[in-house]
Design goal:
64% helix, 5 strands, 5-stranded mixed β-sheet, 22 helices
């Protein structure tokens, strides 16, 4: 009894240690200050849901709410904490949930210390390097980060044939994010049906109860999604077209994907197949589950390719089908299968050759060391929040340190302009903001006429979003941007959409003197005699 207790304690110790180490990897590689890529989008929406006085007239925040379960479970935190704190709390929870599931999956197959850390680390690397459609799992806090953590725990339960728990966990994942979680539910259902047909046994009553209850829970994500559709067929069709071919072709339309993405993902899929063929002597039911659902996800991706090519880009049916993200699940499940099989090879070969820890730990340290080191170097070169890295201008200086310093200066000026808006304007103020930014609401707590990132989910609002975007940021000389528009056009846009403020870039002498003699508008930031890369203008009555 003492030996068994000691063994259990050792297993628990290594399980917790590997989770901590994997969360540390997440933090070192994805721990930029908030907001991350989608945090400004999701968390401002959640804050507005619980406090409608937050940016009350913002077009996007006032549109229909698609992720009600996420808002209900997590959004209330915005009533008590600032957005940055909520982001960090959500990241910590999501990372622990995901890390624990990956470590458990790795340990379940490899039965070795550090196997979970290896599988989790390899998974994160492969999702970032070999994705096809841009899907990511580890990053900022949003609905899908919780959904993936729950879904991966569901996959872990499937490896032990604990199917009642599978359906409860994955149903909850689908409630948080109907597509991220829902596609994994679909893959598991297909795998389960095939397994029953091939070798049984038939589902038990407990499993059926779990399936029904999980399905009911999943309605929390499905019903709000269904309510977003318009009853008008023409409006719905146009909304689908805009969603697929205007806003998100880089995620949804395979013919727009870079050749590099095709090559890397195809290589990963082929490599996974070769690993599966050559690990026959080490196979177990747990591996079959991971590889099986990965295969289903590839079939789903192939279906997306067939739909895209066979129907053509002018097909309304193609538009309505491609909204369902046919490639996001293969972007996660194929890397998961590859990571698990790679871990199996490393730890089994180390065991059979007598190398033990020396080989497996060396490979693990090399893999994570190169990855973490590269990301730390990247973060040092540009430590801005990821939501700003991808959208705000960066310095063009050739010297790395000067480029870093000037980039941070541009970012500081952006935040100061937003802070001026927060401290000096009414809470219901509306502004027209630069085209390529997505964090104005996050920093300023003030509304915007329209942004590229903040696309509404309901059909009618999506059409209005497109009309606003085309009107506020029209093409001039083949490019968009407020600096390309004349003064009269800008002021007319402000009055048309009820914007009292205009936020503009000032990267040239002419832009810094814009509206200098125009009595219709007043520069209120920066103060006279101070330099800033951004200016705030207030329209006069």
């Amino acid at each position: 009894m003492v030996a068994r207790s000691s063994n259990k304690n050792a297993v628990a110790f290594w399980f917790l240690l590997e989770i901590i180490c994997l969360v540390l990897v997440f933090w070192l590689t994805h721990g930029n200050s908030p907001p991350d890529v989608n945090e400004a989008h999701y968390l401002t929406k959640a804050k507005h849901y619980w406090n409608p006085a937050f940016c009350p007239d913002d077009f996007f925040l006032s549109s229909a709410d698609a992720h009600l379960v996420f808002y209900w479970v997590c959004g209330w935190l915005t009533l008590f904490f600032d957005l940055e704190t909520v982001a960090w709390v959500g990241r910590a929870f999501s990372w622990v949930l995901l890390a624990s599931s990956l470590v458990s999956i790795g340990q379940r197959v490899c039965f070795e210390k550090l196997a979970g850390l290896f599988v989790g680390g390899a998974f994160v690397i492969l999702t970032e390097v070999c994705h096809l459609a841009g899907e990511w799992v580890v990053g900022g806090f949003e609905a899908k980060t919780i959904a993936y953590g729950l879904a991966f725990w569901g996959i872990r339960f499937a490896m032990d044939a604990r199917w009642r728990g599978v359906w409860l966990l994955t149903g909850t994942a689908a409630a948080f994010h109907v597509l991220a979680g829902g596609w994994i539910v679909f893959c598991l259902i297909v795998f389960r049906i095939v397994s029953i047909k091939l070798k049984g046994p038939r589902p038990t009553g407990k499993e059926l109860v779990g399936l029904v209850v999980g399905g009911l829970v999943a309605l929390g994500g499905l019903i709000p999604g269904l309510l977003l559709s318009s009853g008008d067929a023409e409006i719905a069709a146009e909304a689908n077209r805009l969603y697929v071919h205007v806003r998100l072709p880089h995620h949804l339309v395979i013919t727009t994907f870079a050749v590099e993405r095709w090559a890397l993902f195809s290589s990963l899929t082929g490599g996974t197949l070769l690993l599966w063929i050559n690990t026959g002597k080490w196979r177990c039911d747990g591996q079959r589950v991971i590889v099986g659902i990965g295969l289903v996800s590839v079939i789903v991706a192939i279906a997306g390719i067939v739909i895209t090519i066979s129907l053509g880009n002018d097909s309304t049916l193609q538009h309505s089908l491609l909204r369902f993200y046919f490639y996001r699940t293969s972007d996660t499940l194929v890397p998961l299968a590859a990571s698990l099989l790679a871990g199996l090879v490393v730890f089994r070969v180390a065991e059979e050759t007598g190398k033990g820890w020396r080989l497996s730990a060396s490979i693990l340290l090399l893999m994570l060391g190169l990855y973490v080191g590269d990301r730390i170097k990247e973060r040092h070169a540009d430590p801005r929040p990821r939501g700003d890295v991808l959208t705000l201008p960066s310095s063009k200086k050739t010297d790395p340190e000067q480029r870093r310093a000037n980039t941070l200066r541009i970012h500081r000026h952006w935040r100061l302009a937003c802070l001026w808006m927060k401290n000096n304007t009414p809470h219901d103020a509306i502004a027209i903001t630069p085209l390529r930014q997505q964090t104005f609401k996050w920093y300023s707590h003030r509304g915007e006429v329209v942004t590229r990132k903040d696309m509404p989910q309901d059909a009618k609002s999506l059409l209005q979003w497109h009309e606003r975007r085309e009107s506020v940021y029209p093409f001039v000389g083949g490019r968009r941007g407020l600096s390309r528009l004349d003064d009269d056009y800008l002021l007319a846009s402000c009055r048309h959409y009820g914007a009292d403020y205009l936020v503009l870039t000032q990267f040239s002498e002419s832009s810094r003197n814009r509206f200098a003699d125009d009595v219709r508008i007043e520069k209120v930031f920066p103060p006279a005699g101070r330099f800033s890369y951004y200016a705030v203008y207030k329209l006069k009555d």
